[in-house]
């Protein structure tokens, strides 16, 4: 059968491009030998592990890299600015730095709670024990301050066997308590030579200092980070562990709000979800629900009164449907909430995060004032649901449990190989080792110019709240 000339022309047009990506910059991955000379290497115990049959391609080599951006315009119409960044691929190395019998590992959880923290701890313990034969594994209690203020607890697979079924962190956590000299002195004095740090962006900033101080002292200690933030605001990586579980749990609050609103005359269900600087939980929960009429996030300003404002939009929805569901991220609207005390603006918590005003309570009050003013004597109900701590204090779901296992094993492989000062996480679906300095600085805001935000607005017909 002859080919269509149109197909041939299309094929020729497509084939004229060369698929070479220029200007690739491989991000550095620090190894202990970079500042400690003459370190020995050892064959990986995975070679003799009865559960593995390593082939030549099983082990990761220095030439295995992952591109940060995989979408490219070969026409040159939309040129990329700067180099194409690449990262070393995570996974087992054929030669490792630490002998199993000489490893003394410490695991610490810092900052707020997140689904999956106990799974990460468990898989670090089981992975070190079963994959590499490490027997000295310790949990540091109460966050960073636990290094110098409490005794570490010995961990083993039997002890952590059921931890993945529990929410929170069995090791306990806290904010603040970061004293660099005390922490590094404690790590050194207690003989830890692998440190696994689980935490968010504030914790990662602390890890940068710990890594740099250990490097300055030229200590033979590997420091590995596993990024944790329930609201998915850590940059570079595809997503943070626990995020999927949080979105799933948020559905329950949205479903309840929808039922309450639908069961009342002129009912509004108002749900406040976590998201200090980003609205990922609110946006994704909204898209999953399909019952939400309006989603307010920190990345998209809004206003209440006047043409194109929130009240006008809700008025139309109530007239059309008789009810409405409104989801708001906790960091939204902070610039328009009246502040009685200007000192509140500068108030911060122990992690250095700004203390936000309650946008949910404020919106509930403003909605009631608006209705009483514009629709006197008409029935109206606002049901306000705040599941903030409910969505983060639960065990991880199946997807996050699997994700936590892969993160833990990636961290173990990197530390055992002698790499340090890295954070592990997926980039475009492949696990990579990322310099912790980059992760500590990178943000992950919702892009209100991309397809996902447009998708949501097309479903809800929500205005952009841009003042004309």
TrEMBL record:
ATP binds at residues 112, 175-176, 200-203. Its cofactor is Mg(2+). It comes from the Eukaryota. Its main location: cytoplasm. The record marks 202 as: Important for substrate specificity. Keywords: Allosteric enzyme, ATP-binding, Cytoplasm, Glycolysis, Kinase, Magnesium, Metal-binding, Nucleotide-binding, Transferase. Catalyzes the phosphorylation of D-fructose 6-phosphate to fructose 1,6-bisphosphate by ATP, the first committing step of glycolysis. This is ATP-dependent 6-phosphofructokinase. The gene is PFK.
